[in-house]
Design goal:
The structure is a single chain. This protein has 615 residues and is an alpha+beta fold. The chain contains 16 helices and 17 strands. Helix 11 packs antiparallel against helix 12. It is an enzyme of class 2 (transferase). One of its GO terms (molecular function) is phosphorelay sensor kinase activity.
């Protein structure tokens, strides 16, 4: 709220420049952010589509590669000699067995001349194991290949069988990691006769050649995994391929966004139907948007530079545009100071020129009215002067000079002891009291009367150094109620003088106010001072009861010598109430010696401002 109040006092030039800069920078910032967000969103979608196309092409190339291997298993059918040799039964002749092995081994060696260096070894499995490989290795010819699952599966189908990653079998001491293609071999003479199977083992060099052509950037990578989460190919070791594979399977979508170690990644995946391998392409979102970020920053820099230029130009424009208006404001301030001889040089035909002309006319009219009313003001002033002097003199006597002297001495002591804040606060409160006393002949809202009362009691509480406490419990619904000025202050002063000065301990003054069931408003000023004797209380009640509007005022002397005793302030307030509202309203006093005094102020709830004749 405080900052908003300060803003309200800004000059129009400052406000105009501030909001202009705010709107320009806000528009630039918002446009930059929205355009960057839209661009990155579209670019990420476009990149995702492009990556999906790339891995689809990789998938196609790998499928083509695997098809070549599948076709390789059909090569025996293209050599009649091999098929005839495989069908021969040579169990009874060792020489025939040796010739058969040499013939088939020669055929397999010719197959290994195949330019694909990723083919590791070829097996033909019939009554014996026939094999040739690129690298020398010890073959286990006694291996029971018939017990392998892939062999049993091949014997039950004429389709080619894909065997996932495994350690090469039918060799001694363990072979390398390979994947295999197995095809059932049938007789060409009797298609119902199964001769055995051909098995081609291959490593991943061919797949690596295909995948190495794909560049996913320094922050991304390309991975191929089988269903057993074996990593067939990886382009980088910085990313966890198995974790990425698990997230792809959990997401169930070919394209998805993930966060890993505080970094955002775009995942694209596809599956090879022939081998059940999954290709996972990983792209770093930060790397994808790097150019977009550079473009955004460059655009924002250009926009800021243009905004700064616009602000400089607007500053000079606003300064020149508002100069006549600010001149009028300056002239108005001079008029406020009493200089009515100012004039605006109205040589413009726009709205500011019209404003200047109107200002000149207004100043001239005010000057004329002041001259016309000068005599009337003098007469009124001379008429009221004596009345005011009399009121000031009465108020001086009412407040008591020693209160002012004591208060000023207290303020002086506070200034000397370094308590400037308290001294200034008491000066403000004393000023408020004296200013309020000048309106003694007027009605003021109850709220203002309570403020004056708080100021008085606060000063007295400081004087008595904590021996005086006060409490206000007035219904807030009564705050706008008009009452005569300084109605409660004399009562409170009476409570302070006669309740606190002569008492050593603490004294509490409580002021309360509420509506009654009789349509009246009852205020109570109660103190915990020494109180008064029954005899003194009765005398005071008799004087309050005898008070009439036509009796002498409290400022006059009376025959009872009441000025020197307790109750002059109460009689004064009581008479003011009866003069204003009638004899049915006024004060009542209760007191118990040693316990304190309570003063009740009874006022009408409605009908304020009525004269005595109206009551």
């Amino acid at each position: 709220m405080y900052k908003w109040k300060r803003y309200r006092y800004w000059s129009i030039k400052k406000k105009l420049l501030f909001f202009s800069v705010l709107f320009i920078l806000g528009s630039v910032f918002l446009a930059s952010i929205l355009s960057y967000s839209k661009y990155t969103m579209d670019f990420e979608q476009q990149s995702s589509e492009q990556v999906q196309q790339i891995i689809a092409q990789v998938s196609y190339n790998i499928d083509t590669y695997l098809d070549d291997l599948f076709r390789l298993t059909l090569s025996p059918y293209m050599n009649d000699g091999v098929m005839q040799t495989l069908e021969e039964d040579v169990q009874d002749s060792q020489l025939a067995q040796l010739k058969k092995r040499r013939f088939i081994d020669n055929y397999l060696e010719e197959m290994m001349i195949y330019p694909r260096k990723d083919i590791n070894r070829v097996f033909i499995l019939t009554d014996e194991i026939y094999t040739v490989g690129r690298m020398p290795i010890s073959v286990d010819y006694d291996s029971r290949f018939q017990e392998f699952d892939w062999y049993k599966q091949a014997m039950n189908t004429q389709d080619s069988i894909f065997v996932p990653t495994h350690t090469q079998q039918m060799v001694k001491n363990g072979g390398p990691k390979v994947f295999s293609i197995v095809k059932q071999l049938r007789s060409t003479r009797d298609t119902e006769k199964i001769l055995g199977a051909i098995k081609v083992d291959a490593n991943y060099n061919g797949i690596a050649v295909i995948c190495n052509k794909v560049d996913m950037g320094s922050g991304g990578g390309l991975f191929i995994l089988d269903n057993n989460r074996n990593v067939i190919y990886r382009s980088t070791d910085r990313l966890n391929a198995v974790s990425l594979f698990n997230q792809v399977k959990a997401g169930g979508k070919p394209t998805m966004m993930i966060d890993q170690n505080g970094t955002s990644y775009l995942l694209n995946s596809t599956q090879l139907p022939r081998s059940n391998w999954t290709i996972v392409a990983v792209s770093s979102v930060k790397e994808l948007n790097q150019k977009a970020t550079e473009t955004r920053n460059f655009g924002f820099f250009i926009a800021m530079a243009c905004s700064l230029l616009a602000f400089v130009l607007m500053y000079f424009f606003v300064r020149r545009f508002l100069a006549p208006l600010l001149n009028i404001v300056k002239l108005m301030r001079e008029v406020e100071q009493g200089n009515l001889q100012v004039s605006f040089p109205a040589h413009r035909n726009d709205e500011i020129g019209y404003l200047g002309t109107s200002f000149n006319g207004l100043v001239a009219r005010v000057n004329e009215m002041l001259e016309e009313n000068t005599q009337l003001v003098k007469q009124v002033y001379e008429t009221e002067l004596l009345q005011k002097e009399a009121q000031v003199q009465a108020l001086y006597n009412q407040i008591r000079p020693h209160f002012l002297f004591n208060t000023l001495n207290m303020i002086s002591m506070q200034m000397q002891t370094g308590k400037q804040d308290k001294a200034i606060d008491h000066l403000h409160k004393l000023s408020s009291m004296l200013r309020g006393m000048t309106r003694m002949d007027k009605d003021i809202p109850l709220q203002k009367e309570l403020d004056l009362l708080k100021a008085y009691l606060s000063i007295q509480s400081s004087r008595y150094e904590g021996r005086l406490e006060y409490e206000l419990q007035v219904d807030p619904a009564l705050y706008d109620m008009p009452i005569p000025a300084l109605l409660f202050q004399p009562i409170a002063e009476n409570a302070v003088i006669h309740g606190c000065e002569a008492k050593r301990g603490k004294t509490c003054i409580r002021i309360s106010g509420e509506k009654t069931a009789r349509g009246e408003v009852l205020f109570t000023i109660q103190d915990s001072g020494q109180g008064m004797s029954a005899e003194t209380l009765q005398k005071l009640r008799d004087k309050l009861e005898r008070a009439r509007p036509d009796y002498p005022s409290a400022g006059d002397s009376d025959a009872d010598g009441i000025r020197a005793g307790t109750g002059i302030g109460l009689l004064n307030v009581n008479k003011r109430i009866k003069l204003k509202y009638g004899s049915g309203y006024g004060l009542q006093v209760d007191s118990v010696q040693g316990q304190g005094t309570a003063v009740y102020v009874r006022l009408p709830e409605a009908g304020f401002g009525r004269s005595v004749a109206d009551v």
